[in-house]
Amino acid sequence: MIDVAGLVPGASEGRGLGNKFLDDLRHADVLIHIVDSSGTTDENGKATKGYDPTNDIEWLRSEIHAWIFNNLNKKWDAIVRRHIATKSTSANTFQTQLSGYGTSKEIIVESLGGDYGKTPLKDWTSDFLYDFVFKFIDVRFPTVIALNKIDHPDSDTNITRIIKYYTSANKKSMSNNPSEESKDKIMVHGVDPDRIVLTSALSECYLKLLAKQNYIIYNTGDEDFISLEDDPSLSDRLVSFDNNVADELERIRDLVLYRYFSTGTQQAIIKAVETLNMIPVYPVKKIPTILPNSSPEDFSKVNGEKSIFRDVILVKSGTTVKQFAEILGDDFAKNFNGAESIGGLQLGEDDVIVPGKNNVISIKTKYSSIKTSSKAPTKPSN
């Protein structure tokens, strides 16, 4: 996860830290766009009142679009000539041209769905290319909108308006395209209402700080915290705090936790991972002794040691065991000799990894098999 440089309107033309922001973007799989829902900061980050946060959502996408479209459009004639001369497919041509944006062939093929894949490149107009770039960035840069500062008194109105706008706009678009979009949801301005998350980052920071100082018991994502006032029996673990801290904690409870059931920060990250349709896989050297019907989350300690699963790797849903071995490294892929999961479950290279079933994996290699054989007891001679 990276925290990219701030963006201001005109970034695609080099204004502010735009060039660095757009360069950072190339390395991202998904974006979490943190929007000040209180309307107390404008598009340049300056303090104000009554600002419409919807503007921030709109112009971020516009800046990314301008960055890519301008680069393509200024050399479009040359791109088409080369495309025809080399007899390339549209997917191959765009893969070459858009590779600098960290794309893949899979993303290009998805972006070329519908009329974009049916129309020869020589017949593409500037407007057609313009629309295609919007389709491409919606696929390449899926975005979670984190409406922040939900505890601010001016946020309620803005949050309601934003959610209502994108929800109703998406419903209208689907009703206008019933046959073409019967399976896939249309996103208006690149925003999927299901990817809007309400957050209070400041509340999260405050709660984590107090938990670190033993004022409260709190873990990111919890619906509530526990203080000494809540449970006096925890005097051996927690310390008391003054009225100022008590008032702030009560405010966070009333305006954030009781209303939204969390600060939303963990939910934003979870939503980002879900957006990519990724699953967690836990690579281990040796399968620990765990009941076959237990999940990795059920076990935090084995033999008194904390966190038996030291590593976790996120992979695309549908990834096979052999593909996971390739992710781990060339040695695992070239010398792959099977795999094992919890309960002694033996896995083949074409087995699909499924969370809660076989996503704790010990990859076997030819070398490990040789090593095991060399340690096997030999038959005593007569």
Automatic annotation (TrEMBL):
**OBG-type G domain span:** 1-219
The protein's UniProt keywords, in alphabetical order, are:
GTP-binding, Nucleotide-binding
Origin superkingdom: Eukaryota
Pfam families recorded for this chain? Answer: YGR210-like_G4
Q: Which InterPro entries match?
A: Beta-grasp_dom_sf, G_OBG, GTP-bd, P-loop_NTPase, YGR210-like_G4
An annotated GO cellular component: cytoplasm
Which molecular function term from Gene Ontology is one that the record holds? Answer: ATP hydrolysis activity
Q: Which PANTHER family match?
A: OBG GTPASE FAMILY, OBG-TYPE G DOMAIN-CONTAINING PROTEIN
Record protein name field: Putative GTP-binding protein
Please report the organism this UniProt entry assigns to the protein.
Answer: Smittium mucronatum
